[in-house]
Amino acid sequence: MLALVAAACALVEPRAAPGCACWRRVVLAPGRRHRVGVQLALPAGVDGMGAAELMRLLNRAPRGRGRWAEDEWTRLYEGARDRGMLSGFGSVRPPPLSDAVSTGSLEVATGLAACAFAPNASPPWTSACAALALMCIEVSWLVRHGAPSVWPAALSLAMFGLWLDQTLFGCALTLAAVRTLDPPTHARFASHEAAHFLVGFLLGLPVTGVFMRGRLLTMKPPGVEVLAPDVAQPGAHCGALTDAQLSRVGTMLMAGVAAEALHFSNARRGSDDVARFQALVNAARPDWGEGRALGAARCSIRNAVRLLAEYEDVHRALTAALQAGAPLGDCVATVELSLQQREVPRTSKTKCRTGRT
């Protein structure tokens, strides 16, 4: 039904970029050990797995109530990196964090107006009005064909379809409607989430989930989950975080806003990411005040822009993988393959120079 599709778009649009879901727990209660149901250990023999086996393991990583513990995720990624299978994980050192970045210096460094980085989501009234218009068209068509009591029937059927999609199909129908009716919105969303994924991966933050097709039996919107061990580990205290740790987290959180500004000229989503970073900075540096905290946020945006510009080809490949609905392991493999292809031209040029010598 047209009304079902329009109402689905109205539900998804205001919440279409959740950022990293685990950050809501970490920021609101820093230093606590957050558990979601039963936390499991990694399967036996994971330390001896090859690259293909590791990617298959990530593809079927447990979700929901029975999931791997946070330290197990860290051990998995770091162990694979040490064995040479995830050479890109943690390959970039956290950029310096400054609390004195002004609006002007941000514009000079990025070549974009500062307002491009201010999340400005289109109001939900737009989608709501579109849904209402399509509902009226549908009702008018039913009335012309002699269908009695069409208003209750149409509304009930639309709401039932939305509930069915949320509970049984993990928002798959809703996302298919968004992809079909508004491809630019879906591309923007995929680019936003790919930036969180890529920047977190490069800075050594384990990516623990990819939910581009929605989450089964929940009302949560799709997105990616990135873990920050420095904040989430037992006994962690935000006041003890170093500038490098804050920079790593902040750059990851601001990557979505930076990606939208770079590729779509403005950021529509990411206000929750900005709020989470501000909450983390306020907890870690309570003496900074609002002005210095905003300077740190601008610095994180600048760092994210530079990383995404340097790894633009990797970000583009990951965005395509997310748009296609690739699972976590396939996305990690896409990043690794893209990073390896970046090294091939450099190696070839070096060999040519050596041959001439």
UniProtKB/TrEMBL annotation:
**One of this protein's GO BP terms?**
proteolysis
Signal peptide from the UniProt entry = 1-16
Give one GO molecular function term.
ATP-dependent peptidase activity
* Entry's transmembrane regions: none
Q: Which UniProt keywords apply?
A: Signal
At the top level of its lineage, which domain of life is listed? Eukaryota
> Is Signal set as a keyword in this record?
yes
Instruction: State what protein this is by name.
Output: Uncharacterized protein
